[in-house]
Amino acid sequence: MKKRLLATLLLSVSMLAACGGDDTGNQNADGSIDGEKVVKSSCATCHGGNLEGKGNTPALNDVGARLSEAEILDVIENGRNGMPPGLIKGEEAEAAAKWLAEQK
User: Which of 39, 46, 63, 95 is deepest in the core (most CB within 10 A)?
Assistant: First the structure.
């Protein structure tokens, strides 16, 4: 029983670490944040390389057809179902939500 709990805990921690991204390399030449780069570096690990969804994670390649920019930002900031909150923050979260809302 302890081994199963430990394995579950380690898997959860590794998944959370894989879903997060870092702040480097997500800016355009003009200093603005590139939402597509943020999404590709922070979300593709869990949602698939083409954002087609993987396992229990939903597809994001057409998320703009289902959710508004404000709803997407809310999910990024507050989490939903299995997605933990705050993996992307601040201006990067806003840029990611804007870009994702355009995916239809």
Answer: 39
What's the pLDDT score for residue 22?
A: 44
Class of domain 2-101: mainly alpha
Residue extents of the structural domains in the chain: 2-101
pTM: 0.75
pLDDT in the model for residue 25: 82
Q: Which of 36, 38, 53, 25 is nearest to 88 (CA)?
A: 38
Residue 92, judged by CB atoms within 10 A of its CB (0-12, 13-18, 19+), counts as buried
Half-sphere exposure of 95 (CA within 13 A, CB side): 21
CA–CA dist 66, 63 (Å, integer) = 5
* Position 68, amino acid: S
Number of Cβ within 10 Å of residue 65's Cβ equals 9
Query: How high is the pLDDT of residue 35?
Result: 97
